[in-house]
């Protein structure tokens, strides 16, 4: 599905942003996959699911504002052969329904694809309750759970389909706003667990996930002007990590960057991997610092947290 | 089978199940087991498993979710009575690494359709199974069993409201024994559960949870009513039922048995 996508589609997915793309792609995928159902805890409109609901009203399930119940219902449906996509805001998905993710998706292994919207700071002035500051941290330790953080609209399309086709529970973490910057202009092979090296560079390795991949590329351009050549890796799967890539890094300095807390996310996962290894690179973890950021416009908040091309470049300069 | 024959079958199954629950506790459980919670649902499960749920290998027209997971011994004993597992497997109860831990782990090959232990988790899952059945138009009914204390959990009500909204083919049996781990439900959280379920637009029914004839009648009725929407059955039970020194005695929520207690209890079951 969506093989040979056009430039117009790339622009559409970028314009829609990650949740609009998720909804549009799911609606398309559902046409030929009758087992797909979409659940929402009364956030259908905010989940980009209007198209799905209009096309498949009998397969769109609004559980009401009941995230824990939604997980149970999604799991029961999955146990009977449905492919359950359940979405809500990232922090509600991971924290309010955290034990449910652990029990139904982890321990019972049900085929639920939990979609966390507004990962990171994208909800802006809505503040902490609506931000996904530590959703990855909350879920990362659950055995058997796959965690995907697509970098742009095209990758959101690929991740949604990969999640649908994957046999087992998935947490699909979406972020950013509409007009999501394009990282992948052309088609490329997407495989869960296999990162993508977007730029070569021997001075430093920048391993990024989600929205930060775009900013990492921009930072690499800034650094190149100073003679610092950065490798940029799209680590779209946070669990399981692409350890082969990590073990193959030759640079002496590694920067991980995520629109997520510095605690417990991509950075922590990478640090865990390198903990027992000799000759591991010096590892700088960049993300949202510990604390409750004062709300403001999304771009302003990214800057406040040191996330953005300039912030990443500064962290690299310091790290080297 | 006539109703009388069915009732005799249930009585025999329930008696055997009670003996098995005591045997598992005495012979297999090192740290003590949830005896009284299991005994309070022995009759409910004897009727369900021998009369209402499909036998092994038969087409699945109904599914059972034990939401009150700590009453596992009753489920294991019922699975044995219904032919899903052997006595040898029952002897694996709480043995290291076995398929029969203190709280059941989902294992469809053994007839266990849900991983219990975390109270509240069963109801919404059962609602999901029931929704699937409705969407597939299978004519399938989902049964789930909850404790009355378990109804303290908020997520139970998320499932309850959803089931009513979607008129799901779901039968929830509430083991209303008036007790929970720390004491009497009335002293911890006195809920008029029947009124609450009715207010949530469920159909409701009550019965003596130890009367096999009454249980059979109410389950058959509920199975028919569930075609229109969810049904809650309030089974009035006694925690620890069947062993005089355990009845309504919260010492037996979870405990070990001495040889003397075991023999006394067994003798009571045999005499009954």
**Rg value of chain B:** 17 Å
Q: What is the 3D form of chain B?
A: globular
Percentage of residues assigned to helices of chain A: 40-55%
Q: Kindly state the mean pLDDT of chain A as a whole number?
A: 97
> Please, how many helices of chain A?
12
Beta-strand percent range of chain A: 15-25%
Largest sheet of chain A: 7 strands, mixed
- Annotation, overall tally of beta strands of chain B: 7
Uncertain parts of chain A: none
Binned, the helix content of chain B reads: 40-55%
Quaternary assembly: heterodimer
The stretches of 5 or more residues of chain B where confidence is low (pLDDT under 50) are none
Mean pLDDT score of chain B, rounded? 97
Round the Cα radius of gyration of chain A to an integer and report it.
19 Å
Strand order, sheet with most strands of chain A: 2-1-3-4-6-5-10
Order of helices and strands of chain A: HEHEHEHHEHEHEEEHEEHEHEHH
Q: Specify the overall morphology of chain A.
A: globular
Structural class label of chain A: alpha/beta
Write the layout of secondary structure elements.
The complex is a heterodimer of chains A (320) and B (272).
Chain A: H1 7-32, E1 36-40, H2 50-55, E2 60-62, H3 67-79, E3 83-89, H4 90-96, H5 98-107, E4 112-119, H6 135-140, E5 146-148, H7 153-165, E6 170-175, E7 196-199, E8 204-208, H8 212-225, E9 230-234, E10 237-239, H9 243-248, E11 253-261, H10 266-274, E12 282-288, H11 298-304, H12 309-319
Parallel strand pairs in A: 1-2, 1-3, 3-4, 4-6, 5-6, 8-9, 8-11, 11-12
Antiparallel strand pairs in A: 5-10, 7-9
Chain B: H1 3-28, H2 35-40, H3 42-52, E1 62-66, H4 72-81, H5 87-90, H6 122-135, E2 141-147, H7 154-165, E3 170-176, E4 179-180, E5 183-184, H8 185-188, H9 193-199, E6 203-208, H10 212-225, E7 231-236, H11 259-271
Parallel strand pairs in B: 1-2, 2-3, 3-7, 6-7
Antiparallel strand pairs in B: 4-5
Helix pairs in contact in B: 1-3, 1-4, 1-11, 3-4, 3-10, 6-7
């Amino acid at each position: 599905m969506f093989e040979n996508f056009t430039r117009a589609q790339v622009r559409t997915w970028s314009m829609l942003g990650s949740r609009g793309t998720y909804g549009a792609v799911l609606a398309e995928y559902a046409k030929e996959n009758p087992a797909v159902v979409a659940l929402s805890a009364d956030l259908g409109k905010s989940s980009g699911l209007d198209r799905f609901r209009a096309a498949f009203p009998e397969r769109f399930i609004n559980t009401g504002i009941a995230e824990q119940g939604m997980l149970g219902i999604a799991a029961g449906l999955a146990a009977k052969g449905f492919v359950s996509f359940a979405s809500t805001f990232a922090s509600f998905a991971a924290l309010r329904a955290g034990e449910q993710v652990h029990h139904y998706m982890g321990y019972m292994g049900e085929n639920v694809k939990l979609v966390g919207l507004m990962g990171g700071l994208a909800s802006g002035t809505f503040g902490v309750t609506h931000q996904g500051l530590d959703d990855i941290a909350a879920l990362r330790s659950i055995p058997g759970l796959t965690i995907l953080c697509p970098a742009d609209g095209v990758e959101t399309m690929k991740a949604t389909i990969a999640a649908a086709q994957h046999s087992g529970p998935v947490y699909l973490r979406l972020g950013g706003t509409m007009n999501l910057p394009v990282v992948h202009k052309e088609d490329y092979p997407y495989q869960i667990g296999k990162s993508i090296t977007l730029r070569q560079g021997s001075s430093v390795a920048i391993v990024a996930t989600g929205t930060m991949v775009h900013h990492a590329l921009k930072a690499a351009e800034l650094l190149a002007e100073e003679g610092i050549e950065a490798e940029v890796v799209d680590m779209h799967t946070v669990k399981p990590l692409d350890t082969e890539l990590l073990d193959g890094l030759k640079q002496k300095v590694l920067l991980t960057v995520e629109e997520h807390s510095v605690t417990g996310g991509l950075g922590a996962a990478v640090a865990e991997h390198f903990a027992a290894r000799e000759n591991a690179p010096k590892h700088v973890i960049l993300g949202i610092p510990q604390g409750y950021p004062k709300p403001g416009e999304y771009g302003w908040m990214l800057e406040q947290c040191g996330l953005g091309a300039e912030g990443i470049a500064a962290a690299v300069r310091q790290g080297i | 089978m006539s109703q009388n024959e069915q009732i005799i079958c249930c009585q025999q199954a329930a008696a055997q199940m009670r003996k098995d629950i005591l045997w598992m506790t005495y012979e297999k459980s090192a740290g003590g087991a949830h005896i009284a919670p299991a005994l309070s649902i022995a009759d409910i499960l004897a009727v369900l498993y021998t009369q209402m749920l499909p036998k092994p290998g038969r087409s699945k027209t109904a599914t059972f979710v034990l939401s009150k997971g700590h009453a596992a011994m009753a489920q294991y004993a019922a699975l044995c009575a219904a032919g899903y597992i052997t006595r040898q497997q029952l002897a694996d109860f709480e043995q290291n690494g076995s398929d029969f831990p203190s709280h059941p782990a989902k294992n469809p090959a053994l007839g266990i359709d849900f991983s219990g232990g975390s109270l509240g988790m069963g109801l919404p899952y059962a609602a999901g199974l029931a929704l699937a059945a409705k969407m597939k138009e299978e004519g399938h009914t989902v049964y789930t069993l909850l404790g009355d204390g378990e109804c303290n959990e908020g997520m139970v009500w998320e499932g309850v409201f959803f089931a009513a909204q979607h008129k799901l083919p779901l039968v929830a049996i509430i083991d209303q024994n008036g007790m929970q781990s720390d004491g009497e439900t009335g002293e911890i959280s006195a809920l008029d559960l029947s009124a609450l379920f009715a207010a949530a637009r469920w159909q409701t029914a009550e019965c003596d949870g130890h009367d096999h004839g009454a249980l059979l009648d109410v389950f058959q009725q509920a199975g028919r009513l569930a075609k229109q929407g969810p049904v809650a059955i309030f089974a009035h039970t006694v925690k620890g039922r069947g062993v005089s020194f355990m009845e309504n005695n919260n010492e037996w929520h979870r405990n070990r048995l001495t040889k003397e207690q075991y023999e006394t209890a067994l003798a009571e079951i045999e005499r009954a």
